[in-house]
Each structure stands twice: as C-alpha cells, then as structure tokens.
Design brief:
alpha/beta, about 270 residues, Rossmann fold, about 35% helix, 3-stranded parallel β-sheet
Length: about 270
C-alpha cells in the first residue's frame, strides 16, 4: 500500500547495559548470543528515545540498525508531563496522620531484573515502621513480575505506616500525590526526576553489573545501604538532588526544541516521502 510504518517508543529505558537475567541469557543462548530482533528491520523507521538505549539494543541483537533513529522522549518531556499530570485521574489515599510529614511511593521492582528480593522486603519492613512517613506500596503494571507472596503481604500490611495502593491505581496519579519515589530501575522514575520530586534509587538492591543513567549522569539519590534510605526519609526535610542538564539532554532529549512537536514534524516527513 506504500504507507510508511514507524515504530515509536511507548516508554524508555534506564539501563546503559543489557540486564542478563535468566530470561535474557536463555534468549541469547538460543540465538547465537544475540536477541532475536531482526523483525524490527521491517519498519521504515524504528525510533529510540536516547542514544544509549539504541546502542544497547542494536549492539546486542540481530536488528541491523539501518532504520534506527533517535527522536528524544515525548513521554517524559516536560511539555507532555505538564498535560499528563493535569488530566490523570484522582486516586484515593488516606490522609497523612499527625506524625507523618511525607508520603513516599514505593514501586515494587521486577524481581527477575537481578533484584535482591530479601533485601527489598527488609527495606519495606524498615520503612513501614517509620512514624514520619506514609509508605504507599504499588506493584508494576505487569503485576506478575512484582507480586509479593501472601505471607510477605500480610506481614508488610501490618506495619503502621504502610498503605497499599488501590488495585489498578494509575502510576501517574500515585506520583502526583507523593513527595518522594523509591524505585529500582523503572523508567517511571523519570517522571519524579522531571517534576523535581525526590527519587531514591536503592542501588544496593540490584546486581552491581547493572549500570543505569543515574550512574553516569546523576539525577537520583543512589542509596548503597538500607540505612541510607531510612536516614534520608527520617529527616524533617527531604534531601534535594540536583538534576544536571547533561541528564536531561541524554535521557529526555533537546526539550528546547519541543520534542512532541518534533515527533509530529518527523512523522509528516515520512508521509511525504
């Protein structure tokens, strides 16, 4: 039909290298050391948000890279966040009690991404006992990857500061209602960074082989121990983490050019070819 097809990114990646989980290792073993992405060559253009993500995927897969382009991240650009956080649905959370100063959102990690589950549960227990915060716990949108066991849920739910996010609650709505975010490696943390909220990445929970944009560019409080996380959230005033311009340029793109509009212009160019 002669209609150009362009694959656009629906999210983003925080990783500077490939997470060699059991699933990834098996895929590599089954395909001569490469991820089987050759079908991505069928698009007229395959778009990445950032150079580092392009390099990781093209360098470790069977896609040729001949049709690859980098357009920046429309999803995490501040012009879109301004709209998104205005239109996101309301979420009902308990009001902070008299002793609580901060609402802290904790997104459960995807366990298969080389995350220390027992250390994560230990951190949840420690934070759930802090009197000065309300700890809101939410699973990943792909819930099977992040589920707590029944016994873990029962024990954590009994802690005085813990609230479980309503089932199906929108992640954007939860971030909007929170003062701080704790997350291991999901790109949703870019929202918190862009909005100027405290983002704590408990780096010690993930295998040391995993490298992220926060290792290279900053933008997060990268805690190396449980005590460091607890100390940061026990303070009367939450820590302030600066976000370097280099972070935004490498991760989000050139926001001065209005990234969303650049997507529109580039797609129009494809239609005119």
């Amino acid at each position: 039909m002669g209609i150009p097809t362009v694959a656009l990114p629906h999210g983003h990646s925080t990783k500077l290298n490939l997470i060699r989980s059991k699933q990834v290792e098996q895929a590599l073993a089954d395909n001569n050391g490469k991820l089987p992405f050759a079908n991505r060559d069928s698009f007229d253009a395959y778009v990445f948000c950032a150079n580092y993500h392009r390099d990781v995927i093209v360098g470790n897969s069977t896609m040729s890279g001949n049709n690859v382009e980098v357009w920046g991240s429309a999803r995490f650009s501040r012009e879109w966040l301004h709209v998104l956080y205005r239109i996101a649905p309301q979420v009902q959370l308990p009001a902070l009690n008299g002793a609580q100063q901060h609402r802290v959102l904790f997104f459960l990690p995807k366990w298969h991404n080389m995350v220390d589950r027992s250390a994560t549960i230990s951190l949840l227990h420690a934070l759930g006992k802090l009197a000065n915060i309300q700890l809101v716990i939410s699973g990943h949108v792909r819930g099977d990857d992040t589920q707590l066991s029944a016994s873990e849920t029962t024990e954590i739910a009994a802690l005085p500061s813990v609230v479980f996010a309503p089932q199906g609650a929108n992640s954007v709505s939860l971030i909007r209602e929170s003062n701080a975010l704790i997350d291991v490696d999901s790109s949703i943390a870019f929202d918190a960074v862009q909005l100027g909220k405290l983002y704590i990445r408990p780096k010690y929970l993930q295998d040391a082989a995993v490298r992220t944009v926060y290792d290279q560019f900053g933008g997060a409080l990268q805690a190396m121990t449980q005590d460091e996380v607890v100390s940061a959230l026990s303070a009367q005033e939450l820590p302030v983490v600066s976000v370097p311009d280099a972070f935004r340029l490498a991760v989000i793109g050139d926001e001065a050019s209005n990234i969303s509009q650049q997507y529109v212009l580039r797609l129009r160019q494809f239609m005119q070819q």
